[in-house]
Design a protein that fits this description.
Elements lengths: L1 E6 L3 H12 L4 E7 L2 H11 L3 E4 L2 E2 L2 E2 H11 L4 E6 L4 H9 L4 E4 L4 H12 L7 H18 L7 H11 L4 H8 L3 H15 L4 H15 L3
Parallel strand pairs: 1-2, 1-3, 3-6, 6-7
Antiparallel strand pairs: 4-5
Helix pairs in contact: 2-3, 4-6, 7-10, 8-9
Keywords: DNA-binding, Phosphoprotein, Transcription, Transcription regulation
Organism: Amycolatopsis magusensis
Pfam families: GerE, Response_reg
Length: about 210
């Protein structure tokens, strides 16, 4: 039995998806949430096998929620289910650890299959999501060198690091918890292939110099 938790700000969507999934004898919907805050409060207590997350939520976004949940609930699999084919959101979702990203116009059988696959720990990408991701990666690599895979928020974080700010100071600037900033810095260093924040600061300073002609 795969235990499923649904996160979507539209109750009608949650009810529809729950009805669809519970028609499958091997799936059980153990809980629902309409906001990121509700999901963060309920999912760690229920420990489902998979969280099905909308990308846009009233108090945050599903990508950051995916990252936070996976850091709090080891073994949790996440499937993004959204109406938006935003390329950056797809890339960020995969980098945040989501096992799949599917669009809401997916037919019911394929959604059930996706929940089975991702809930079992497999990786899945909707064909459009995969194509968009590859196009985005190729374009970014060509245009942006070492910063190719960084989101706007990660670039903002890199700027603060290069300015010498501590995690606490960055948390205030970005309106985040200090622990969240620590996780973001760790992920940023991983994406840059670096071990220390001073290396990232040096890189950012060098790139600034190149762009200003220095």
């Amino acid at each position: 039995m795969i235990r499923v938790f649904l996160v979507d700000d539209h109750e009608v969507v949650r009810r529809g998806v729950a009805h669809l999934l519970e028609a499958d004898a091997d799936l059980e919907v153990v809980g629902e949430a309409g906001t990121a805050a509700q999901a963060l409060a309920r999912i760690p207590a229920l420990c489902p096998d998979i969280a099905v997350l909308d990308v846009r939520l009233p108090d945050g976004n599903g990508v950051e929620l995916c990252r936070d949940l996976r850091s709090r609930v080891p073994g949790l699999n996440c499937l993004m289910l959204t109406s938006f084919t935003d390329e950056q959101a797809m890339l960020d979702a995969i980098l945040a650890g989501a096992g799949g990203y599917v669009i809401k116009d997916i037919d019911g059988l394929r959604l059930v299959s996706a929940v089975h696959d991702v809930g079992s720990g497999l990786s899945l990408l909707d064909n459009r999501a995969a194509a968009a991701l590859m196009a985005k990666l190729r374009a970014d690599v060509a245009a942006d060198g070492p910063l190719a895979t960084l989101s706007d928020r990660e670039r903002e974080l890199l700027g603060f690091i290069s300015d010498g700010l501590t995690n606490r100071q960055i948390a205030v600037r970005m309106n985040l918890a200090e622990k969240t900033v620590k996780n973001y810095v760790s992920r940023l260093l991983t994406k840059l292939g670096m071990q220390r924040r001073t290396q990232a600061a040096v890189l950012a300073t060098r790139l600034r110099g190149q762009r200003s002609g220095g």
